[in-house]
């Protein structure tokens, strides 16, 4: 497991999260950004020219984070660690591929990681 990399990331983000889990929704490159909190509005990703999860330069390292407080949240682009937070989430909810990258392909086995 890559906890030597993973633990410092969570430690640095303790004000933002206390858990990491995955949701395979974030693995779908064709998923429309209109389905997430940071979709449109002044702070929306659609208004910045992005249309799908796969159009984001950080894909598949995307997901939800507790720092994103809801629709049109101004916090979307200030909440990146190794993922781009595009939706609301309890702690960090990322694509399975992103969690596999952090846990040496153990996302399914672990399901949830606490700091």
TrEMBL record:
Q: Which InterPro entries match?
A: Cerato-platanin (IPR010829), RlpA-like_sf (IPR036908)
GO CC terms, sorted: extracellular region
Listed A to Z, the keywords are: Secreted, Signal
Instruction: Give the location in the cell.
Output: Secreted
**Predominant location category:** secreted
List the Pfam families. Answer: Cerato-platanin (PF07249)
Q: Where is the signal peptide?
A: 1-17
Q: Which family does it belong to?
A: Belongs to the cerato-platanin family.
The name this protein carries in UniProt is Cerato-platanin 7
What is the originating organism of this protein?
Lentinula edodes (Shiitake mushroom)
């Amino acid at each position: 497991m890559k906890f030597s990399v993973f633990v410092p990331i969570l430690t640095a983000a303790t004000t933002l999260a206390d858990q990491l889990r995955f949701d395979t929704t974030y693995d779908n490159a064709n998923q429309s950004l209109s389905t997430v909190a940071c979709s449109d509005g002044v702070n929306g990703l659609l208004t910045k020219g992005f249309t799908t999860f796969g159009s984001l330069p950080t894909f598949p390292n995307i997901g939800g984070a507790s720092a994103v407080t809801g629709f049109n949240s101004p916090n979307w682009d200030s909440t990146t660690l190794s993922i781009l937070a595009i939706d609301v989430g309890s702690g960090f909810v990322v694509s399975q591929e992103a969690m596999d990258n952090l846990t040496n392909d153990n996302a399914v086995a672990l399901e949830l990681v606490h700091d």
